[in-house]
Amino acid sequence: MDRASTTPHGHKGEAGAAAQNHSLESQSLMYTGAPERFSFPPLKTTQPPIISNRQEANDRSQAGATAADRKQTGQTQIDQSRSQHTQPEQAANGQEPAAGSKPTYLSFATEDLYSSCHKPEASRAECYKYFLENYQKELAGYWSTVESQKKYGRPVLEFPPFYEGPAKPSGMEVVKPSSSAKLPSVDDMLMQSKALNRLVAADESQPDFTVKEITEEEFKRNYARETLRVGASLGLTRAETEKIVLNIYAFEGGGKATHDMLSGVPMELTKPEAEGHRELADKRRQMHPLSSAIGYNQIIMSTNLTFADGEGKVVADRLRELAKDSPRKEELETKATLYENLQKTLHRELMEMVKAHPESKDKYLDKEGAPRYQLYVDFAKSTKPTGLGISGRQFSTALHALNLDGDIGPIVQSRQFAQVVGHTLKEETRFKLELKAQAINERADRFDFLPDKQKERAIEEVFARATRGQDKHDALKEKIKALPVGMSDALSKENLGEEDWRFLNTKILSQRRHGEKTPLSNASQNLVDKLQAVTYGRTRGNEYFGAAVELANLAGPRQADAMLEAKNAHLPTVNFFDRKGYEANPVVQRRTAEELLNAIYRIMHGPNASAELWGNAQFTRAFAQIE
Questions:
Q1: Taking the CB of residue 57, how many other CB atoms lie within 10 A of it?
Q2: Could you give the C-alpha distances from 421 to 244, 296, 606, in angstroms and in order?
Q3: What is the pLDDT of residues 468-514, one digit of tens each?
């Protein structure tokens, strides 16, 4: 549930997010790039988009076309694009764009973009490498401009550039990261955690610490117990807490993830195994992840440090409370003492890191001397030896293993649950969600009163994008054409069947409205809102609560609040995430702030939420077993 970022601009910055594995989005990572000589202009206005030079490429193939002709063609396209798409001046000055202005995407045109690959001696691999390298340079330039715009409080209206070069040739070798760059596997975490007793006692004679491993059903039951407890302290009913937990699990875990799930691990490795078998579990635990995000809440290493440092006593007190009536009283009390001592040890090493980097003191500590999040991030990355004789990364890895412990893990993850839920419960946030739902319902209603021909064109447009020339799903299309004004059960799973219902959720409703090269027409955008209302029921603000919790988890509470503001609904999500956080989460990419909230909501209530998925069924049973 938490994979925090390395800067205030995004809460989840480690490469690879759980949503990347488990959401049923139709994701596309296609971009456009160009050689290095095309650079961004100074920060005077919001950068105008530049259309891709496809027409120029076609002109090259025409007999008699000269270099001058080609150059003029490209320049004409650039000039036309600038005149058509330049955003209002007030957008660059931090003001809301004029009515009707929409985010755009960037694409780059250059005179010699295609020429090198048209040489007879050019290999497919060389051509691909040329385009990829130039695209990556342009992408870096785009993100540099994004960060500059943020620094001066200017909204970014452009989406990242597209890649339109050739596909990677089959069999072309991919450079893999060195072993030193790999993030720790579950096995690595468990191995590092053996030293925890010795680290806190500074005594090599201490025995190994052993993470208590329990079954998946037991872990879910313990987590349900802890979330019900913190939910009640926040004023939530049992039903409300269970719903939020299942919403988050559907989004983060696809309805079938395990408590030891690391980001990027294939979902087929999470299937339940017959008693006495561990083949899948062993493979799962040996894999090096895309990020250190672990468990139902997908907590990353740096955020885990914030809980170990800031809530060590809270976790220890809860362990002692559980010990009172437990036959394992001594074991639980010993863990409580260990966790308290780990907090003291961690805090000491964090302060030593600040002393070692006096130039970064303001970055690491606030005015009261309390650690800022960046300190935890840098400590978790550090490969330099600490006073413990191991690196900050090794110490963080050992602490991260405690999320796997059947006693400690559910408590720590419930603290993360309490943090993001408590923030979202604010009256201000609920009001924003109600306004958001109202706006979506109004757009859905708008579709009902469009002329029939406009409705038909909208339906054809969204189906053309969804099918891309493949299966047309004609039966589904006819049912959509026949939808009456207002609500209907025509698009329920029972009335559509599994295949069409899944296609509706993952291909039709998931369409990006502004982040593609050609935005959806207004009528098609209204159609998507209409279909969501019919599929999931007319939207109410409280129905978005789980999605708002996850939004706070993805972007951080402050950025989530900004995304819920009506004035920011149209802004691309690059405004609210740093580059790592943006690229790590496909669900975030090429969406506006409002579209992201909608996408989260849809994933939480779509196929991932099916009661037939074994993980969802286990969680439902777990909650039922808690008195």
A1: 18
A2: 9, 15, 22
A3: 867 778 999 999 999 999 988 899 888 898 899 999 999 999 999 99
